[in-house]
Amino acid sequence: MKDKIFVFDFDGVVCDSTDECMITSWNTWQKWNGRNLQRRQVVDFTEEEILNFRKLRPRVRGAGEYFILNKILDEKITIDNQNDYELLLANNRENIQKFKILFLSERQIFRAAHPTDWILLHSVYPEVINLLRDLNLQNRLYIATLKDFLSIRMILDYYSVNVEDSKIVDEAKIVSKLDALEKILLLSDTTKEKLIFFDDNVTHLFESFSNGFEVYLTAWSNPIPEYLEQAKIARIPIVRNFEQLNLIINKG
């Protein structure tokens, strides 16, 4: 009998949330800077704005870091690699939590006023959604994410992935993905060897991998080439497509 437990990150793994994050973070940045401006649709952005946001979006780990992304875009700061990003983050650490609170509030306003429009800004990967449904029915699915709980709940419910609330380990419950996996070990009453974790940001995987968890970097969204190279150097396996994902699931 298959007994593996599968843990999925959300943004970039289950869905592409770039459009929603772009709109919400832009509105939050305007409010942060005292500007009474607001956008509600992707068409409100230029092609250049969308392209520039998409290039940086995969580096963001949690709502607070959209402060860094918008600072980079607004001030035209050059980010050549992860070290550049981490340095900028370290120099602006005092603003991250404040921006996160404002970002989540701005998201809540949009989500409450236009729930379906908000959900449809997230482009789910149908192959992954189908796998989540099957794994959930087998009681083998957990979500570990730095996204907020209600967002995850609404999107999963819309696509009939009726995972229990207790199996969604969100940003309010964890400080890192390693923390999430350790909490899931307790929740699932299983062993480390039986957990498999998928995430599209390699910086989330280093700590878990070095602590003996089986982890995979997913690469079907918009992977930063640097992340793929770092995964290879660290010997973290890469799942490049849904066929490979299916093989891992079926093997487990």
Q: Output the strand order for the largest sheet.
A: 5-4-1-6-7-8
Number of helical regions? 12
Radius of gyration: 18 Å
Could you give the order of the helices and strands? EEHHHHHHEHEHEHEHEHEH
The N- and C-terminal alpha carbons lie at a distance of: 9 Å
Query: Total number of β-strand segments?
Result: 8
Low-pLDDT segments: none
Strand content: 5-15%
Helix content: 40-55%
Whole-number average pLDDT?
96
Structural class: alpha/beta
Q: How would you sum up the global shape? A: globular
Biggest sheet features:
6 strands, parallel
How would you explain this protein's 3D organization?
With 252 residues, the protein is an alpha/beta fold. The chain contains twelve helices and eight strands. The protein has helices at 18-32, 47-56, 66-75, 82-91, 93-113, 115-120, 126-137, 149-158, 177-188, 206-210, 225-234, 242-251; strands at residues 5-8, 15-16, 123-124, 141-144, 168-169, 195-199, 214-218, 238-239. The protein has a six-stranded parallel sheet, with helices on both faces. Strand 4 (141-144), helix 8 (149-158) and strand 5 form a beta-alpha-beta unit. Helix 1 (18-32) crosses helix 5. The radius of gyration is 18 Å and the shape is globular. The termini are close together. The mean pLDDT is 96.
Task: Give me a quick take on this structure.
This protein is of the alpha/beta class and 252 residues long. 52% of the residues lie in helices and 10% in strands. The longest helix is centred in the middle third of the chain and has 21 residues, at 93-113.
Using brief descriptors, characterize the structure shown.
two-stranded antiparallel ribbon; six-stranded parallel β-sheet; 8 strands; 252 residues; alpha/beta; single chain
